[in-house]
Amino acid sequence: EFRRVLFRSTIAEAGQFATQLGVRLGIYEKYGVQVQVVIFNDDGGVLQAMLSGSTDLAQVGVAGVLSSQTTDNPATVVAVQKTRVVDGLFCAREIRTAADLRGKSIGVSSLGSMAHASALLALQALKLTAKDVTIASVGGQAQRIAALKAGSIACAPAAIDQARDLSPLGFNTVVDLSTSNLQYPASALAMPVKFI
Q: Is the pTM of this model over 0.85?
């Protein structure tokens, strides 16, 4: 007998593809689990679905799971898929230094997300704070890159492997967090505590 599980996820980069890969390879069915994966644009939507009880499992940034501890429906992490920060802060052609970035906008997926954490870490590396810039919720990595290309935002955190595509277009990697070897439980499999 199959156990049906609702799974919410974002797929913005290769490190978040494990859920879909499991479905495509039949791994869940092999163990008697029928998984329905619903893709969301950003971690905020996935977290809201999980905390509202409309999903059983979620692939989400750990920051949201930590924040859920003060709610009536806390979540818990059961596995960590990405254990270090691999983002870069990509900026428009004219932004190369901290002074250039001051007063400009940085697009993140949602406040409290991993992209938000990466933006804050990049600002710290530049000896700036969130008060020195405007942080705007834009959406997942694809949406942030589109907003950056359109000029709607000045900078955006994205997986450092995006440098291959963004550098030839004139975008600068102002901070490369992947070289810091910063250990952080960035992406995790989580579920509401009551699901366990």
A: no
